Amino acid sequence: MEQNQVTPSALERRIDISVSLADIEKEVDARLKRMARTVKMPGFRPGKVPMKIVAQTHGGQARGEAVGAAVEKAFGEKVRADNLRVAGYPSIEPKDGAAEGTLEFTAVFEVYPDVVLGEFAGRKIERPVLEVGDAEVDKTIEVLRKQRTSFKAVERAAAQGDRVVIDFTGRMGGEVFDGGQAQDFPFVVGAGSMLKDFEDAVVGLAAGEGKTFDMTFPEDYHAANLAGKQVQFEITVKAVEEPVLPEVDTDFAKSLGVADGDVAKLREEVKGNLEREVKRRIQSRLKEQVMDALIEVAPIEVPKALVQAESNQLADNARRDLEMRGLKTKDIPVDPSWFKDQAERRVKLGLIMAELVKTSELHAKPEQIRALVEEMAQSYEDPSELVRWYYAQPERLAQAEAVVIEDNVVEWVCAKADTSDKDVAFDELMGNNAA
After folding, report:
1. CATH architecture of 2-111
2. What distances in angstroms separate CA 390 from CA 55, 117, 309, 317, one per listed residue?
3. What 8-state DSSP symbol labels residue 222?
4. Which helix (DSSP H) or strand (DSSP E) does residue 387 occupy?
5. What is the pLDDT of residues 192-214, one digit of tens each?
6. CA distance 253 to 425
7. What pTM was computed for the model?
8. Which of 93, 232, 346, 375 is 20 to 30 A from residue 390's alpha carbon, by CA?
9. Domain spans of the chain?
10. Which helix (H) or strand (E) holds 398?
11. Rg for the chain, CA atoms, rounded
């Protein structure tokens, strides 16, 4: 058996493999004999089928398996001898012009790149800093109040923030268009559920009043038949209701899960949840900066096979997400190529972080994993139940372990880089959504 290796590119490898036909024939004969012990055929008892008939019936299968096993063995011996780390699966191609008594193949595959980390010194990383205080708690409670807004009827003209109930008819060229007509239609003025020009037309109208107005749909409107078109609406206001926010009292606290209705306890729980969420968002921002730094200090080429596999996985995740939303993926094709850039970044980071974790011993310690799980459990009514859930299956615990490893990498890089604290505004960090 002979092999020789050629290196046509940075990560691609080609290995020529020659296997002996005599060895193949011996293996075929051995496989047929094993088959003959159990093979069943009409007119023969099990194990009594003549070898000639077994060979005629199963010879092709036995030969294919024998050749595959020989090539796989030769390939494995060569990559182990050369200490190659194969990425993905090799492509085995037959070669023409083989020497007498041999079969020749070429195995084409990729190997993992060598990861060499550069220096982090001088690379600037900003660690967001935010202390949760009474002002942040107040803002969050205000958001919670708005989420529980009720409405009461008023005898006045509609204003921003009011809920109105209207009848409307829309015409284009004098004809009512599809979706242009409704009765007893409710919406909140200024909430953005309707086009702004439509909402503005309602402002100033009281129950029983109406108006006719012209409106032009945006050029990028989702309904192609209306995009950029001018229409005329006729509206009649049937009810105007103003928003009523709940008082921060015992009933409000109970509605948010505080059994005894203690408002002080509610504020404590809101603050605790906020502190965990702020910590998570700060860590996420810090992590993004660290990941960018890792890619910059360790530029590597990544195996196409790994990028393709990651792209396929991301596409599968997207399909599952669409199906969970009630959409049929056969009607919305999801192409793995859409995720190529994201997949390449993920593969690069995976390889770089794996090398860093190994060389700098940043593996997750059991006590770190436990602390993370217990921290995540604090936002649940029964924290111990979530802890048991994580520890019930290794796969679940592996998710927490991965988070701890990422956090270890983040802290290690921050210690090496030029890291400074930077105050961040609450609204900016929370994306104007404190809830």
Report:
1. 2-Layer Sandwich (3.30)
2. 54, 34, 28, 22
3. S
4. helix 383-392
5. 999 999 999 999 999 999 999 99
6. 27
7. 0.72
8. 346
9. 2-111, 124-136+256-429, 149-244
10. helix 394-416
11. 34
